[in-house]
């Protein structure tokens, strides 16, 4: 999430791997917030930042300058310790850094035509992947060490992605997801699913990564809008929810409980599986798709995540009465919103704005 827009006060925004914190980069510096309480936890006024990524709730940040100050080059990655307030290491590249991803073992650096895979602790390069021109720095990375996949665009004319296993250093499969080039993709935190959206289409597709044959499609509306963010909910197991924010101002929720019953791992091991668009086997029931109309201002970039999902059960019969979720949204005009969402047994959606505040006005609590 590092797209620069001259008019928005927020240059970049990212949630950490378990959604417990989020970081925003502004023209003045960067700020870390606690997602649960909305508290401003950390702030540095150092200049403009175009990428700020946090590793879980650790003291490690990966930061890249926006190039507005000579000392903050967009070609330099700085690993920053928030406890000491000092740089740990710096890595310089020949071209601008477009995206950074991390988990506890790997650091991924995305440039326009390359992806570098580093060992996070030693910072030795483990892999250099040549990519098609990737000017938006599109990528998806799973923080899970058991299914540690990196997805990169495979084409500039079609919506296909290559999935690499960056623990074992091999190409896992190619997914031909859409006819038009990819606009967004995300891997679930357990590495089990990948969701994709194209630049032109109205479909969001979900694939089971281990099984290179299954796919599911959601039609998110009749009119194409730009997908600003795609993210899976926090569940380690199903059911999970996929959230997509878009330029129309709507946020779409896709419930994925269905896939619990799908058979997995039909792909022979060691074989480079390929998913063809024709293999889209099941269009999902529209019942699995809910829309929050005008949840965010239309045309303003936003980043929506589902932070919490829980069942409400009848204590005497243990029957599931509803599924409740909390959705957190960062809008690049400077706001944080939190919606309480409930989907009842009749599949009726209800939602209320639980909280909203300006991310730029919040003052750090004096400690
Ligand atoms: C940051 O500094 C603190 C204090 O010296 C240290 O305990 C911590 O391990 C450091 N974090 C990283 C990511 O190196
Ligand atoms: C919620 O209920 C569904 C069945 O309706 C079940 O499969 C799922 O495991 C439950 N989730 C949680 C988090 O308890
Ligand atoms: C939203 O959910 C949170 C946590 O479940 C709860 O504390 C809060 O009161 C709810 N707010 C609204 C407006 O329903």
Automatic annotation (TrEMBL):
<dbReference type="Pfam" id="PF21032">
    <property type="entry name" value="PROPPIN"/>
</dbReference>
<feature type="transmembrane region" description="Helical">
    <location>
        <begin position="45"/>
        <end position="66"/>
    </location>
</feature>
<protein>
    <submittedName>
        <fullName>Autophagy-related protein 18b isoform X1</fullName>
    </submittedName>
</protein>
<dbReference type="InterPro" id="IPR048720">
    <property type="entry name" value="PROPPIN"/>
</dbReference>
<dbReference type="InterPro" id="IPR001680">
    <property type="entry name" value="WD40_rpt"/>
</dbReference>
<keyword id="KW-1133">Transmembrane helix</keyword>
<dbReference type="InterPro" id="IPR015943">
    <property type="entry name" value="WD40/YVTN_repeat-like_dom_sf"/>
</dbReference>
<keyword id="KW-0812">Transmembrane</keyword>
<dbReference type="GO" id="GO:0034045">
    <property type="term" value="C:phagophore assembly site membrane"/>
</dbReference>
<keyword id="KW-0853">WD repeat</keyword>
<comment type="similarity">
    <text>Belongs to the WD repeat PROPPIN family.</text>
</comment>
<dbReference type="InterPro" id="IPR036322">
    <property type="entry name" value="WD40_repeat_dom_sf"/>
</dbReference>
<keyword id="KW-0677">Repeat</keyword>
<keyword id="KW-0472">Membrane</keyword>
């Amino acid at each position: 999430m590092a797209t620069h827009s001259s008019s928005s006060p927020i240059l970049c925004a990212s949630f950490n791997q378990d959604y417990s914190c989020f970081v925003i980069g502004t023209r003045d510096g960067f700020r870390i917030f606690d997602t649960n309480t909305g508290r401003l936890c950390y702030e540095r006024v150092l200049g403009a930042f175009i990428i700020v990524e946090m590793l879980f709730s650790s003291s490690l940040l990966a930061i890249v300058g926006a190039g507005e100050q000579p000392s903050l080059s967009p070609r330099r990655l700085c690993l920053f310790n928030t406890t000491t307030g000092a740089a740990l290491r710096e890595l310089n590249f020949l071209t601008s850094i477009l995206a950074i991803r991390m988990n506890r073992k790997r650091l991924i650096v995305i440039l326009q035509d390359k992806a570098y895979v580093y060992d996070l602790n030693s910072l030795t390069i483990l892999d250099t992947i040549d990519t098609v021109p990737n000017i938006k720095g599109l990528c998806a990375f799973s923080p899970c060490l058991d299914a540690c996949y990196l997805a990169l665009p495979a084409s500039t004319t079609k919506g296909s992605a290559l999935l690499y296993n960056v623990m074992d250093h091999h190409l896992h499969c190619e997914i031909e997801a859409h006819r038009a080039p990819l606009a967004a993709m995300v891997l679930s935190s357990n590495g089990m699913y990948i969701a994709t959206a194209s630049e032109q289409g109205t479909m969001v597709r979900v694939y089971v990564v281990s099984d290179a044959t299954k796919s599911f499609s959601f039609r998110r509306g009749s009119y194409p809008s730009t997908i600003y963010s795609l993210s899976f909910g926090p569940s380690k197991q199903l059911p999970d929810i996929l959230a997509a924010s878009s330029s129309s101002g709507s946020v779409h929720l896709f419930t994925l409980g269905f896939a619990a019953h799908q058979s997995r791992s039909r792909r022979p091991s060691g074989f480079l599986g390929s998913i063809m668009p024709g293999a889209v086997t099941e269009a999902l029931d529209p019942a699995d798709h809910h829309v929050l109309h005008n949840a965010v201002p239309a045309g303003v970039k936003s980043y929506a995540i589902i932070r919490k999902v829980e069942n409400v059960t009848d204590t005497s019969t243990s029957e599931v009465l509803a599924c409740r979720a909390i959705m957190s949204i960062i809008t690049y005009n400077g706001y944080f919103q939190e919606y309480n969402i409930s989907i009842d047994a009749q599949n009726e959606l209800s939602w209320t704005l639980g909280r909203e505040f300006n991310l730029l006005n919040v003052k750090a609590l004096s400690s």
